[in-house]
Amino acid sequence: MLEALRHWILAVVGTALVCGVVRALAPEGSGRRAVSVVCGFVMLAAVLGLRGGFPADALTDYAGTFTAQAEAYARRAREAGQTQTRFIIESECEAYILDKAAALGAGISGVSVTARWSGEGFWVPASCEIEGRIDPALAGIIASELGIPPERQTWSTYDG
Question: 83-156, what's its fold?
Fold first, then answer.
């Protein structure tokens, strides 16, 4: 297919060069006009592939290949964007919980939030693991502000 496209392009370029030389050598007046008309038809035939060197369906197949590749790149970009968005949501929620814990004086040493894809088409915080003793005030803030109910909050204490 690429070989057919290459031959077609070479045919169009070659025809243009020959037509240019013939027109330049043609005498002024009606002779040059006649040569220009003939060259116009020859160029049209070359561009349309009437010499038989380039089938029209090959161009359609070639364009279809590029369309499929473009769709694949777009899909990969969407997936990468969704992964990044999930990471940002999780990181921001973790920072929010740590800030609230510090403001409340809760002894939290770490937090991990997991997001899930919602039915509405975006990432939402789904669960969290908190390293520290349970703090009812912080648990309530996490439930009301982030939408993570107490049953999806895992609290643990690690006594070294």
Answer: GMP Synthetase; Chain A, domain 3 (3.30.300)
The pLDDT tens digits of the residues spanning 1-26 come to 677 777 778 878 888 888 787 777 77
Residue ranges with strand state E in 99-152: 108-117, 123-132
Q: Please state, as a whole number, how many other Cβ atoms lie within 10 Å of the Cβ of residue 42.
A: 17
Nearest-angstrom CA–CA distance, 46 and 23: 17
Q: What are the tokens at 115?
A: 């997001």
CB 149 within 8 A of CB 143: yes
Report the C-alpha gap between 78 and 117 in whole angstroms.
Answer: 14
Please write the tens of the pLDDT for every residue from 73-116.
777 888 888 888 899 999 999 999 999 999 999 889 899 999 99
Domain boundaries, the chain: 2-76, 83-156
Query: How far apart, in Å, are the Cα atoms of 21 and each of 14, 17, 33, 49?
Result: 11, 6, 14, 21
